[in-house]
Amino acid sequence: ATGIMRKEKEEKNHTNITCSRDNVLKTVVFPVLYSCLFLLGLSLNGVAVCVFFRIPSKSHFIIYLKNIVVADVIMTFTFPFKVLSDSNMASTGLRIFVCRVSSVLFYLTMYISILFFGLISIDRCRKTLKPFRGTNAARLARRKVLSGAIWTFLLVLCLPNVILTRKTPTSSYFKCSDLKTAAGLYWHEVVNHVCQVIFWGNLVTVIVCYTLITKELYRSYSRTKAQRKINANVFLVLAVFFVCFVPFHFARVPYTMSQTRGVLFDCKLKLFFFQLKESTLFLSSLNSLLDPLIYFFLCKSFRTTLFKTLQQTLGKYHVMVLISQAAQCGGTDINIAGE
After folding, report:
1. Residue 101 belongs to what H/E stretch?
2. pLDDT 10s digits, 177-200
3. CATH 1.20.1070.10 fits 23-298, yes or no
4. Coil, strand or helix at 29
5. Cα(139)–Cα(136) distance, rounded to whole angstroms?
6. What whole-number distance in Å separates Cα of residue 293 and Cα of residue 236?
7. What does the pLDDT look like over 6-61, one tens digit per residue?
8. Distance from CA of residue 286 to its chain's centroid?
9. Most exposed: 5, 86, 123, 188, by fewest CB within 10 Å?
10. Domain-by-domain residue ranges, the chain?
11. Global pTM?
């Protein structure tokens, strides 16, 4: 009997080890990747913010890009909390904060980006099909109201996830789902379904818009090479959307089900869906690093302002260097005269 009990205990310990989330992928690989992503993303998005502050909101496209850069900055600031939590260097309080606030902000900004990617696709399609159609103050005002409505809707949708994640952890080893009340688990599933609708709706929008854009580009294939090159840059939006958002949404449904309906999944399957979700989530995080490519290649105002800012900065630096050199030369002359 003692031997049987020992064998059962060994099997249980082996199961706990093989099903544990605290493996090298979670505690080492992803923290290193997110740390690099934070440093690069903070630099690029910091530059983007400085540039966009100098650009007036004179088109629908610029309004949408400004919203995306704000979402990217917020997302980037959630990375350090994820690094500390995943590497097991965070205190229990900080891990609770990650579950209640930081993770919610991450997903909030992701779906804000997805919605604005859909709007950008519509805008690029309209620009391709009707390149000479302008805009006016009333249309710009409506786009700003629409932008505010998107932020408000998603904030209201995500707020209950913060409020209903309030259970006290029973041990130092806990998952975010362990902190949710019964209502919190239900709302989490509701939010997941709404977010799936947002994603699939925008995926269809992006595909339809870029199908129309492709047809128009094919019709105008006889244009000059320069024009074709400029038009080809439009597909950056499509590429970033598919690389960053599509894989995650194929993985998220089974992962959420494994968290909210745990009795249907054994621990190894739960671990597989968790690792799949984390891997595709990192691709979604790359959005904050790839969006500046869209700003640079698709927004002429961004490029122009960026180059002007760099010229001014380098000009000031050059003047400061000349003044410093002149001061040093002047100091030398005085010393020589003194001697």
Report:
1. none
2. 889 999 998 998 899 889 999 999
3. yes
4. helix
5. 5
6. 8
7. 444 444 444 445 577 778 888 899 999 999 999 999 999 999 999 999 999 999 99
8. 6
9. 5
10. 23-298, 301-339
11. 0.84
